[in-house]
């Protein structure tokens, strides 16, 4: 994806057209180009070079978009970080990525001095909408930079993003996305919706830009010239109000968001008639709930899709017009998807195995983790850890997961990471975390805990402790205390037995 050319062409051909609508603020395509170029020029002047890592820790604000685009104009690598991450988690990701600069909105729970001192290579912290002596101001960088600065397009194999999907309090797991792959999601979206996407359209984003699902909105906005209505967080009634007031044509959200919308007593009063298609990604969904949502916008196509950060989702999407909403559909022609057994041999249709993917869209691997890369990408096939099956029509179904992974409303939580955080408490003797069914979110973490002898610890106290070390969606929804946890023959905690409780 040639960011330089795309932004320049949009500024010329769609100059005064709305690119981003955020509350009362309207950003035209000319504004978007000018702000991105100005910030890129300023970042370059403070020493950011091609290949440098620049982290972003912001809510879903227009400044997040400027930051992404500015980093790419330079040919540097963006490190988007979830705005819910704690200081411990931030330090872990900043240190692992060797980020040279951090663009952030300050929080009362953060110590900027600690972030800089503990994060190794971090040279500059850039504050958004705030001035503190000793730190740079994003607003000033935007104002001082040259909007007509010149930039060279980066190489296709240079890295545009490092996505941290999990492991942020233990061993971070950074997914590498190169500049060629930045064009993968728009290419897939155009294919899956039969090119039913253009500059006449309006999309609505309530997914965080720190995740691939949110980033795809930015990619589609600049690629197709559509208008993006932006929400800094998901509020169900505001979401529907935006759909109605801005005559939104499409969106993609995780199933838990659909459930929250359906629970609104005002749901049926909103006009959803401008919707042409909607996609659900993320946690295990309820087909009945999605069909109920569809009743109120029957002319829109309801699509189910699947993909990972590592495969530059969407990887598969249900074909338009299909009623098999339980299926996640088929891949685009340039993506191969198969189901393998434990010997890495393809299984027949109807048989369950691990879903694997091969394509130029698949990540090159994990940053500074050759071992994990080799384990996951074997003979060109990316092993997703998800279990699935194909039906006789070639449609794919996800039936479970292979790894110790919990998908909480579209967010990925790894059990060992939560266990490691629990073990930081001095009263803990043993801990194990498993995923349990939740109607709203698909799955939620449940913790089984054994205390050290003579120690006392309440559930509320443990929750409070974990808030200091984990983002809130990683904190277990349920706790079960016992004297000891069951073991298997090798002396390890028997999680299979715990999952049956």
Please describe what this structure looks like.
The chain is of the alpha/beta class and 501 residues long. It folds into 3 domains: 3-178, Rossmann fold (3-Layer(aba) Sandwich), CATH 3.40.50.12780; 237-401, Rossmann fold; 405-499, ANL, C-terminal domain (GMP Synthetase, Chain A, domain 3, 2-Layer Sandwich). Helix content is 29%, strand content 26%. A 5-stranded parallel sheet has the order 4-3-5-6-7. A 5-stranded mixed sheet has the order 12-13-14-15-16. Strands 17, 18, 19, 20 and 21 form a 5-stranded antiparallel sheet that branches.
Taken together, the total number of domains comes to 3
Strand residue content: 25-35%
Oligomer: single chain
pLDDT averaged residue by residue: 92
Distance between the termini: 49 Å
Quantity of strands, as a count: 26
Query: Could you list the spans in which at least 5 consecutive residues all have pLDDT below 50?
Result: none
Radius of gyration equals 23 Å
CATH topology of the largest domain: Rossmann fold
Roughly what percent helix?
A: 25-40%
For the largest beta sheet, what order do the strands appear in spatially? 4-3-5-6-7
Please tell me the CATH architecture of the largest domain by its name. Answer: 3-Layer(aba) Sandwich
Q: DSSP helix count?
A: 15
- Largest sheet entry: 5 strands, parallel
Instruction: Supply the CATH superfamily name of the largest domain.
Output: ANL, N-terminal domain
In short:
It contains 15 helices and 26 strands.
Secondary structure blueprint with pairings:
Elements: H1 3-13, E1 18-22, E2 25-28, H2 29-45, E3 53-57, H3 62-74, E4 77-80, H4 87-97, E5 101-104, H5 112-118, E6 124-127, E7 136-137, H6 138-144, E8 159-166, E9 173-178, H7 184-192, E10 202-205, H8 212-224, E11 227-230, H9 236-245, E12 250-253, H10 255-262, E13 277-280, H11 287-294, E14 301-306, E15 316-317, E16 330-331, E17 336-340, E18 353-358, H12 370-376, E19 377-378, E20 381-390, E21 396-401, E22 405-408, E23 411-414, H13 415-422, E24 428-438, E25 442-451, H14 459-467, E26 478-481, H15 495-499
Helix pairs in contact: 1-2, 2-3, 2-6, 10-11
């Amino acid at each position: 994806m040639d960011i330089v050319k795309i932004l320049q062409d949009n500024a010329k051909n769609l100059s005064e057209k709305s690119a981003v609508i955020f509350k009362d603020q309207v950003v035209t395509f000319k504004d978007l180009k000018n702000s991105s170029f100005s910030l890129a020029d300023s970042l370059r002047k403070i020493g950011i070079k091609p290949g440098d890592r620049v982290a972003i820790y912001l809510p879903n604000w227009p400044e997040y978009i400027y930051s992404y685009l500015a980093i790419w104009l330079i040919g540097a690598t963006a490190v988007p970080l979830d705005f819910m991450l704690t200081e411990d988690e931030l330090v872990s990701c900043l240190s692992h990525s060797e980020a040279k600069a951090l663009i952030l909105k300050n929080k009362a729970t953060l110590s900027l001095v600690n972030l800089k001192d503990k994060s190794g290579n971090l040279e500059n912290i850039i504050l958004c909408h705030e001035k503190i002596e000793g730190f740079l101001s994003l607003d000033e960088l935007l104002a001082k930079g040259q909007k007509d600065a010149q930039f060279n397009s980066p190489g296709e194999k240079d890295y545009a993003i490092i996505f941290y999907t999990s492991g942020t309090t233990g061993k971070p797991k950074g997914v590498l996305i190169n500049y060629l792959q930045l064009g993968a999601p728009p290419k897939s979206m155009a294919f899956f919706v039969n090119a039913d996407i253009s500059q006449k359209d309006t999309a609505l984003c309530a997914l965080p830009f720190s995740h691939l699902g949110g980033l795809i909105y930015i990619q589609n906005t600049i690629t197709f010239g559509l208008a993006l209505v932006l929400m800094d967080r998901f509020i169900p009634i505001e979401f529907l109000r935006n759909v109605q007031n801005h005559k939104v044509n499409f969106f993609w959200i995780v199933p838990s968001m659909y459930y929250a919308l359906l629970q609104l007593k005002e749901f049926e009063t909103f006009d959803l008639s401008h919707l042409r298609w909607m996609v659900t990604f993320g946690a295990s969904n309820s087909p009945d709930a999605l069909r109920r949502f569809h009743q109120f916008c029957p002319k829109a196509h309801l699509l189910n899709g699947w993909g990972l950060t590592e495969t530059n989702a969407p990887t598969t999407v249900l074909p338009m017009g299909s009623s098999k909403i339980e299926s996640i559909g088929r891949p685009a022609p340039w993506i191969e998807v198969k189901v393998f057994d434990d010997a890495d041999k393809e299984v027949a249709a109807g048989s369950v195995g691990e879903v694997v993917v091969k394509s130029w869209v698949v990540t090159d691997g994990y940053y500074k983790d050759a071992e994990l890369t080799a384990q996951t990408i074997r003979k060109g096939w990316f092993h997703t850890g998800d279990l699935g099956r194909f039906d006789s029509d070639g449609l794919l179904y996800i039936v479970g997961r292979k790894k110790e992974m919990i998908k909480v409303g579209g967010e990925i939580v790894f059990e060992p990471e939560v266990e490691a955080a629990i073990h930081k408490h001095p009263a803990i003797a043993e801990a194990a975390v498993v995923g349990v069914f939740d109607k709203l979110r698909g799955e939620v973490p449940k913790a089984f805990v054994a205390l050290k002898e003579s120690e006392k610890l309440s559930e509320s106290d443990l929750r409070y402790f974990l808030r200091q070390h984990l983002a809130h969606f990683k904190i277990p929804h349920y706790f079960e205390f016992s004297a000891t946890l069951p073991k298997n023959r090798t002396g390890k905690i028997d999680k299979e037995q715990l999952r049956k409780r």
